[in-house]
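This part of the workshop introduces the protein records we will be handling. An example says more than a description, so a record of this kind follows.
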Amino acid sequence: MGEAAFEVAPTDALTIALVPTKLVVSRLFEAIPRRQCTRAAFDGKPLSNEELRLLEKAGTGKGIQMLLLTDKTAMEKALEYVVQANTAQMNDPAFIEELKVWIRFGDAEAVRTGDGLFSRSTGNPSVPRWLGSLLFSALFTTGKENDKYAKHVRSSAGIAVFVSEANNKAHWVEAGRCYERFALQATALGIRNAFLNQPVEVSTLRPQFATFLGVSPYRPDLVVRFGRGPEMPRSLRRSVEAVIV
């Protein structure tokens, strides 16, 4: 094991320096193989103040603030932005085509590619790609997706928003690191999480979302719902050797 430090070089490369350190087996370390984005409804129960404190501590970093929305009124307002942005994405043919290409509809396809979004991880059946493509076109509608997100948000204990003080690559990387610590802390506490990034993926809505959050001119970079819920089947990932040059 080793400690890591990173910097974004002028060439846009990410330089990571690893140095030897003493092995420390922590609850967050043990949570690594169990962490997953859980695309399912949660149980709707609130978290304790201590659990929220631990999540906030884990998700805060250098130049990164994490906001926790647990008030139902605030969560409903955030849901309005999710629905508005999701509707825009659903009406974008390029977005739909990219999503369809990324889905692994069946077990055999998931094993063969070792990547993508496994259909069963979202609660859908495992089917051949030709059938999955037909069902996708017939059943993947704006109304159904918006209803699903409404159910997911309303069953969550809260929404976490990771806000960067600056719009640059160093802050983007740090926001990602803060999310990973948040996700591992949540996993260690038996708490699930899943992304709700639509309001920050649609560029025209991000400034409005920031104003709603009261963080303008800072930049909301990641939106995540959290709560307790079931473990779902996992999407597969390629080996380290397959992705490291």
User: Anything to note?
Assistant: The beta strands are 2-8, 14-20, 64-69, 103-104, 117-118, 158-164, 192-195, 219-227. The mean pLDDT is 93.
